[in-house]
């Protein structure tokens, strides 16, 4: 009985520690293998689920209401975050008008990021989408060099070269396999009056246009947010709350103005026979976004930032594989090679960033004694 009471109190302490760490971002690593594996697996599952569900929703034959989709997801995300805060699991600051005004431009940029992401995922396979997202890392890295005095090491440059190579291989495999006269991207280009580029679109899927736009807007968003977050002192949960809350009116207005709310189009986007399931899937994907943030905090707390970066690199493989499993994406020599090269590039990048962080820490520690001697 004493052992059981001790075990019970120990479990309650662990739960309290997890809640405290998630709320404040603090906590220490554990040597227990189970406590390390659980958050890693949960993070990977949340990432895969969100990507697969989003792909399922936007892959509808007549789906064209991306702004409405994103608006519903953001609303669900805000509701989930507020609920979790009410339960005392996480903590973030209450809504403040001054903070909202300062953060609103960032939320508008986020709308551009998630919209271009949904459009690119609509036309590209999950493996190609996952591989091309690596290009965002390159843009961010060189943006930090220009605006924040960052630097790119030799090993980091090697990882960038591998990322570009994997993207080229993926594009080659995808275009040779998927681009046909009946491609939905070509139909959208013609319907939007892009007659002057019809010849180009017939050879290059417009999904790549959205993908490159997504990489550019994502990099601009991250770099701008990095500068703005210093002025607000936002935590990760503050950022998630304000981003989603402030994006809701922008997405709602964009949907009302740019999308067809007619009866026929609504039925085409949400067919009566699958409407309830589609709405559930959209709500689920919004909750999955919260799950990713939750499991990210859990993963970093239970392991380390280095392990988390390695998990992020390794996670690209199962995410890419999910497209081949659930959506029948072509499994060819080119697609498998592209995923493999992209996977290896992610590992090299994670190792490079870890080495760079160690070198910077060592340099800072060597500067302190010198400063003391001078004084």
Q: How would you concisely characterize the structure shown here?
A:
This protein is mostly helical and 375 residues long. It is built from 16 helices and no strands.
Describe the structure.
- With 375 residues, the chain is mostly helical.
- It has one domain (40-59, 66-90, 97-355).
- The chain contains 16 helices and no strands.
- Helix 2 (33-58) runs antiparallel to helix 13 (275-302), helix 3 runs antiparallel to helix 11 (236-258) and helix 14 (305-314) packs antiparallel against helix 16.
- What is the CA–CA distance across the termini? 61 Å
User: Helix segment count?
Assistant: 16
Task: Return residue spans where pLDDT drops below 50 for at least 5 consecutive residues.
Answer: 1-11, 21-31, 199-203
Tell me the major beta sheet. Answer: none
Number of domains: 1
Secondary-structure class: mainly alpha
Task: Name the overall outline.
Answer: globular
